[in-house]
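We treat protein structure as text, and this decision shapes the records that our systems exchange. The remainder of this section carries one protein's record, kept here as part of the documentation:
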Amino acid sequence: MPVSGGPFCLPCRSQVCGNGYVKERLIRLLPCCIAAGVILALCIIRATGFLEPIELLTFGLRAKLALRFSFPIATNLAAVELDGSSLEMLNQPEFGRQRFPFPRSVYGRVISELKAQGAQVIGMDFFFLDLERDYVENRVENLSSDEYFARELARAGNVVLATTPAHVSDTDIELLLVPDLFRTSALALGHDGILGRGSVHGVFRKVTAYVDDKACGARVWHLGIVMAAKALGLDLDHAVVNPGSILLTNRTGLKCLIPTDSANRCYIDWSVKRPKRQPDDSVLGGAFAEYYIESLLRESGRPVPSRLAGRLVLVGFAASGQSASDWGMTPVSDKTPLYLSHLAVANSLLTNRFVHRTSWMAECVLIVCLAVAAAFSGWRLSPLWGLGAMASICLVY
């Protein structure tokens, strides 16, 4: 009879085997436990917004990748650039040696010509925030430069003027006032997108959809949104603002849903490229000086072709190395003329196609699926095959 408690006692052998089995199972379940912890941690981090800067930085990589594909661009967009060649041209003696910043009468002539060529809506990405002195050499038809500019604004009836913030904080934005002479003559006001608000490393990724400006007591929408809304007949006064979206409708039943974040900002779709003034450009391009000269030709009675029938025309600054500059960093380039942001936002509204951020719930589901796949590969596969599976999962993501 075996001695109870000896080294070969059957109960002791069973206990050793059982402990080994439990340890083996725990080791095999360790990846699942790690995956569960990672899932919980990532969901908490996503909910707190801790990874938002990383999300915005990787957005640039995805935006550049998207440029390799073709996306719908509205066929009625046009850009008039005040570039270096226009500055040199207008500084010639035959055009009065106009120097930047130009008298307002110069802009008035260009607006008159754009309207005469059939522009449906004209957006001015320039700031007219004060009144000029009445110099005799700048008078046109016995009107001061400002009076002539205001008259052409009223005659055109389709010009959207731009304004920009005087003060920006996390909770409040105060816009600079546009003189009543110009504000009451223009079709509407639009802000410039609030560059820098919520940006990371100075990269222009989002625009603020609207600002409830206390100074003027009105809601001021982004310039690109105003231009597209006027063209589509969308009712901005009765926009339905919900958490995460803004719904715009018109009388024919058209609905445009703009996805926004908690600060009423929307992503810019940078698939709209700067026009090269070639026949295959998706956006019709033209030089500021070209339309100024054509206004003089039209005034003298000479025939001028009309190229802008039914188009939304954005007049922007594209010169570099001047006292004024409107170039900046975007997700797709380190140097981009920022007037394109207005055309990009207008295009999103015209085509009803926006950059959507995946919802918080969908991101959490994606995190869970990837973590489960990672746990399975680490549990069932050898280290080498598991590493390959993880690399494949990251590539697919």
Remarks:
- The chain has two domains: 55-351, 359-375+384-397.
- Residues 359-375+384-397 form one domain.
- Residues 1-14 have pLDDT under 50 and may be disordered.
- The first helix runs from residue 10 to 48.
